[in-house]
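To whoever picks this up:

The parser on our side crashed when reading a file containing two proteins. I've narrowed it down to the boundary between the first structure block and the second sequence. Both blocks are reproduced below exactly, byte for byte. First block:
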Amino acid sequence: MIQEPAASEPNVTPDVTPDAETSDFEFEPEATRRDADVSESSRANRGWWDRNADEYQVEHGTFLGDDRFVWGPEGLDEVEAELLGPPEELKGKDVLEIGAGAAQCSRWLAAQGARPVALDISHRQLQHALRIGGGFPLVCADAGALPFADASFDLACSAYGALPFVADPRLVLRELHRVLRPGGRFVFSVTHPIRWAFPDEPGPEGLSVAASYFDRTPYVEQDEQGRAVYVEHHRTIGDRVRDIATSGFRLVDLVEPEWPAWNTSEWGGWSPLRGNLIPGSAIFVCERD
């Protein structure tokens, strides 16, 4: 089984078989908007990703590849973006990826000569990382309580991992500030905040504003007893900037990838139709002074 590391054991490789069984719900979760605190969000999303990791990797694995670093559904690749820096400068760098999933980004980093550590809250996602392989540490832990010593990493990254799913992103940002060395860079991508004002639909029905951009009430899917089984949290652009600043980082760039002509795929509410009209992702480039 995947073991959660103690604070003194940062490099824990899961000892698991890649074909472990996962269980499905026998009910259709109810979608609602309500409050969900730190612990409820963490518990719900750990369970959701464990249950849905197989389907996620089947549906999106080809697009993501085994060893590509893709920042979001638009397909922006780190090879061209160089948001962590030129690839040739990554060699020998200690890099933490949070919300790593099957660790595709970490695998690409390792190929550049970096020393990545892939962290995810989901055991099952890390089983897929183990199945693909890579030879770098896989750590199962909550991003709000990182099991690493201070100043352990030169860089940190997260492609749609952790930040959209936590009730208080400042907990994660402060932990990342702690484990990064002075001058370290943290780059993360999330759903573009403006998307919360639109229905999550890839077609024309997803082009009309249907909710307040300023309504920060979390999106929650809950079971028959009202227990959250999936939680996603909304932060405005201003919220994200303030979270970054108050956590000790300096925002050096904000990237809003345009939808490229080559990408004809749909991913949930992301699509060429919507991508050519409104931003779908926001990528924040932060540095630790």
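<<boundary where parser fails>>
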Amino acid sequence: MPRTIWSGAISFGLVTVPIHVVSATEDHSIHFHRVHLEDMARVRTRKVCELEDREVATSEIGKGYEIARDQIIPISDEELRDLPLPTAKAIEIVAFMPWEAIDPIRIGDGYYLAPDGQVAAKPYKLLRQALERSSRVAVARYAWSGRERLGLLRVRGEAIVLHAMRWPDEIRDPSELTPPPVELSDEEIDGALALMDTMTRDDLEGEEFRDTYTEAVAELIEAKREHREPPVAPEPAAESGQLVDLMAALQQSVSKAKESRGENAEHADVHEMPKERSAKKQPAKKTAAKKTARKPRKSA
């Protein structure tokens, strides 16, 4: 059982659901130490007081807010914990919305909310089933780690998940990233749709969804431990320096996608698609039928 990150309650109108929060994800990345390359000794970060020029213990360290270079206001963890906020002790639901109304860019890390004891079992199940039957998500406010946050509650299996959300003013305006105006032909758009059809999946199982970077790092470490040469990376294809023919790139992409799935790519000609505009959706249906009959590959 993962360790409890936070304990409190879900406030749902006059209904209170005691819960504890655990992480919903795991980090399988390979982590490294900082070392002195000359003798491979660990390099550590030491906490040093600027005025006394000495290392200080964790018990001597606290939080401070800098008003000016020579004026810092100390703030204790107890003061932050005891702020007069209803969200300091509870995840307060403030609204319900359709899932489709939430911009995914605002959604952050996920946490499982587990009922805290027998007294929480019934109200927890009530909220979970209400969310499931309504096909909505709950938007809530809560206070963790010295700040108030916005959150999203949704159903996953038999559990309620809390996703951290960013406040509206934390999302940058993407308008300055908009590319310059360009013209696209119907043939190019249809070619992109044909490529999407060949790459459509019903799940995220298979070789394409393995963490190959972590596997490669693990193999590098094992090779060095055994004093042998690590695998050599394949040489990248040389760039021609010429402008890419978009239609030709789409044609090749569709062919490669079909070949990787064991399908016949001989007639994967995206140039012919506009001539059958009344049947534009037909290729997607055929692809879906083939996908249903094929069992998904399991990752190693």
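After patching the parser it read the second block fine. Residues 270-300 have pLDDT under 50 and may be disordered. The chain has six helices and 13 strands.
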